[in-house]
Amino acid sequence: MQKPREINISLVVPVCNEATNLPECHYQLEKVLKEIGKNYEIIFINDGSTDKSLEIIKTLSEKDSAVKYIDLSRNFGQQMAISAGLEYARGQRVAIMDADLQDPPEVLIEMYNKLDTGYDVVYGKRKRRKGESILKRLTAKMFYRLLARMTNVKIPVDTGDFRMMTRQVVNELNKMPERDRFIRGQVAWVGFRQTEIIYERAGRQKGHSGYSYKKMIRFALDGLTSFSDFPLRFATWLGFFFSIISFAMIIWALYQRLIADSYVQGWTSLIISVLFLGGIQLITIGIIGEYISRIGSNVRRRPKYVVKDKNVDKPQKDELTNEKK
Length: 325
Ligand code: UDP
Ligand code: MG
Known about the structure:
Blueprint: E1 9-15, H1 22-36, E2 40-46, H2 53-63, E3 67-72, H3 78-88, E4 93-96, H4 107-116, E5 121-129, H5 134-150, E6 159-166, H6 167-174, H7 183-190, E7 194-201, H8 213-227, H9 230-260, H10 267-299, E8 307-310
Bound molecules: uridine-5'-diphosphate and magnesium ion.
Magnesium ion (MG) is lined by residues 98, 100, 102, 204, 209.
């Protein structure tokens, strides 16, 4: 077994159907990590790949003792795969990276040096995103700005999970029990000294994005519901707003009927308001439902993920203390 303080950098890499990228990914990461010149481990988390990813990772781990793997029993999603990796990492510093080489590995060197100057988190901020559809870029841009407005936690805009953190921050993250992970938000919540490095996000090297629109919407809702109660409050405001309008309309209707004694034909206004209110009610019930379903999954307290196979053990808690600065 490894001695605790031997590993300086852990790289956590979630993998879902990245067989075409993995060899190049390993090659480039090794190159960069050797350049930094510290002890390291690369933890690949196989998140239910249906291609040859797992075999490739296992072969890499046979050739390179720095390569660790965790094979999840099914697809748990990128955020959970990263969370698993963070729990197994033993490095003094831990970086998160995608396997598709969209995040340039050289930036890790910059991140490492930035941490040396006393920061606890260095996250990559995307200046440009190549090779992604306009729709994806636009929706991502809108989402991050919307989220920033709705939450009190300072979640930096236009950042992904590409980042390097100190042991102390990772220990705090590992304590978080929630099932709906939104790691970039959770890291922001933890606090400490955080800073950014601006980089250009490349296009995907090979293969396809594992994020369908359905998954992206789910991810966005996880972010919103975990870090903002604004949608719930918004539902309440809507309720008040329309109650006031309805009240005024009741008075007006009674006046028309009893005093002015003029019947309005009014089918159009009636049907519009019924449909409109019906829509609003369904939306607000839906908002509440999103929160309740997440409360449900947290109350059930199932394990966050299931490991099928691995070549690395979870570190003991007392092994993992912060490095001396
Ligand atoms: N990924 C994962 N599980 C998933 C989807 C993606 O582990 O369910 C991994 C994927 O292999 C990659 C990273 O998460 O290393 C980012 O995924 P992707 O490139 O598909 O996302 P995008 O860059 O399109 O946002
Ligand atoms: Mg990608």
